From TrEMBL:
One of its GO terms (biological process) is methylation. The keyword DNA-binding does not apply. The lineage of its organism: Eukaryota, Fungi, Dikarya, Ascomycota, Pezizomycotina. It comes from Ascobolus immersus RN42. Residues 221-449 form the RMT2 domain. S-adenosyl-L-methionine-dependent protein-arginine N-methyltransferase that methylates the delta-nitrogen atom of arginine residues to form N5-methylarginine (type IV) in target proteins. Monomethylates ribosomal protein L12. Its EC number is 2.1.1.-. Residues 186-201 have a biased composition (Basic and acidic residues). One of its GO terms (molecular function) is protein arginine N5-methyltransferase activity. This is Arginine N-methyltransferase 2. InterPro entries: Ankyrin_rpt-contain_sf (IPR036770), Arginine_N-MeTrfase_2 (IPR017408), RMT2/GAMT_Mtase (IPR051038), RMT2_dom (IPR026480), SAM-dependent_MTases_sf (IPR029063). It comes from the Eukaryota. Keywords: Cytoplasm, Methyltransferase, Nucleus, S-adenosyl-L-methionine, Transferase. It is found in: Cytoplasm; Nucleus. Residues 183-203 are annotated as: Disordered.
Length: 449
């Protein structure tokens, strides 16, 4: 049964976290969920514990204060504090730690995110949940943390659940202000550059940090780039991009430097024994053209979109004797390919699809890469856009995917690539950015010794 408490006592929790008051906090956390937020700033106790270290005086915080802050953060996390809740400035607690330069606190938040996502992985939380109208806040890749209603009757506070990206108005909110669910950083594990799409007003609102969209609107918006929607959309090839019918960027030419390096690392010159290549997701053909520079003996391309297949034919890929085109979804074509070619092994495999979730990437490397990759010289890579909207999400999902790959017997070497500044004009023809960082982590995976 939830413990009843007053707005004043919950405010004490927010203040105690900011003060790192370790005498008061344990008792408060026995009575309150840590997932409440100030209605003005939307900062949770976890935000406050880190933000209070901001250097407002010439002297930095003492070592004792930093130790108390670390203990406070650990205590809040142990009691169920959500790692990726956004405040009004669109920052997670980890974002604040990174901005203030507290690397060890930032790493604590990254580790908390990794633990959360690995638990979701273990319980199947990354699968799309079929929800009725009353459960629309439970978006893909989420798990709802029960708050036992503890904040439901507290005027002037914000109650947070853990539905990733869900933003909904509470049916108990009154004119005095109260109970709304706070948004969280987008933790969609989008290995496949799943850029969202929706009518213009919805798309613009979703990109707005102060968005007030309902959960159902967010879910409808997210659904428009799922594979069935994407495959039925009309694509537009421009000199610099490939766009779907809603102007979501399927691929852009700024990726060329990344793809050129990827191809050279996956199929290096020293690999003279197996120069067979598989690429899943042709798009603009950037990585396939880069692979061709390495003169593969056989080049297999899996592509599902009819417009891209048409372009492949127009550009002569079907006429190349060493090229095999697998037409259709890779989930359908690769099993047939493996049955028809039981002895084939591949020197290089690359994966870069659109409109698919992390589950599909994980299925691909756990079921197909392990069966097709040459155990001696084979290398596997993929476009790493997991959580690329903000640094902490990118850092979390870098570790998550590395753990999952290791579980399949694959070691991962990350090559950091400094990107030329992605200026605004690079994105002016598309709905929204799908990569928002200065550095790209390029994965090269091989079977461990």
């Amino acid at each position: 049964m939830a413990t009843q408490h007053t707005p004043e006592s919950a405010q004490v929790l927010l203040l105690a976290a900011a003060d790192h008051n370790l005498h008061v906090l344990p008792n408060l956390l026995r009575q309150h969920t840590p997932n409440v937020a100030d209605p003005e700033t939307l900062r949770t106790p976890l935000h406050n514990a880190i933000a209070s270290l901001e250097k407002v005086e010439p002297q930095p915080p003492s070592a004792e204060k930093l130790k108390d802050a670390e203990t406070t953060i650990r205590l809040l996390l142990e009691n169920g504090a959500i790692w990726n809740t956004l405040d009004k400035e669109h920052e997670t607690p980890g974002c604040i730690a990174y901005r203030l330069g507290y690397e060890h606190l930032y790493e604590m938040m990254v580790d908390a995110g990794v633990r959360c996502e690995m638990i979701l992985n273990a319980i199947g939380g990354w699968e799309q949940i079929d929800s009725d109208a009353e459960e629309e806040g439970e978006a893909e890749g989420t798990v709802v943390v029960e708050n036992d209603g503890e904040a439901d009757d507290i005027p002037g506070l914000v109650s947070i659940d853990s539905s990733i990206g869900s933003i909904k108005n509470s049916d108990k909110m009154d004119e005095d202000g109260v109970i709304v669910d706070a948004p969280e950083a987008d933790s969609e594990k989008n290995a496949t550059k799943e850029k969202k799409s929706h009518p213009e007003d919805i798309a613009a609102e979703i990109s707005n940090p102060d968005s007030t969209l309902s959960a159902s609107e967010v879910l409808e918006y997210n659904a428009t780039t799922e594979t069935p929607s994407y495959l039925s959309s009309t694509l537009t090839f421009t000199p610099h991009s490939l766009l779907d019918s809603n102007r979501n960027a399927v691929m852009m030419d700024w990726e060329s430097s990344v793809m050129d390096l990827t191809a050279s690392l996956l199929l290096p010159e020293e690999n003279t024994t197996n120069r067979t290549v598989l690429n899943v997701g042709f798009g603009m053909g950037i990585v396939d053209k880069a692979f061709e520079k390495g003169k593969p003996t056989r080049h297999i391309i899996a592509e599902a979109h009819p417009d891209v297949l048409k372009k492949l034919r127009e550009d002569g890929w079907y006429d190349m004797p060493h090229v095999t085109i697998l037409e259709g979804k890779w989930q359908d074509t690769l099993p047939i390919f493996m049955l028809e070619n039981p002895d084939v092994t591949l020197g290089a495999i690359y994966f870069d699809t659109f409109g698919e979730s992390y589950d599909q990437l994980k299925q691909f490397f756990s079921e197909y890469v392990v069966g097709l990759l040459d155990p001696e010289v084979g290398r596997f890579g993929f476009f790493h856009g997991l959580g690329a909207d903000r640094r902490i999400c990118y850092d979390v999902y870098t570790k998550v995917v590395e753990f999952d790959l290791l579980e399949c017997g694959l070691d991962t070497n990350w090559v950091e690539v400094d990107l030329p500044e992605l200026k605004t004009e690079k994105w002016e023809d598309v709905k929204r950015k799908y990569f928002n960082l200065d550095t790209y982590r390029l994965p090269i995976c091989t079977f461990g010794a």
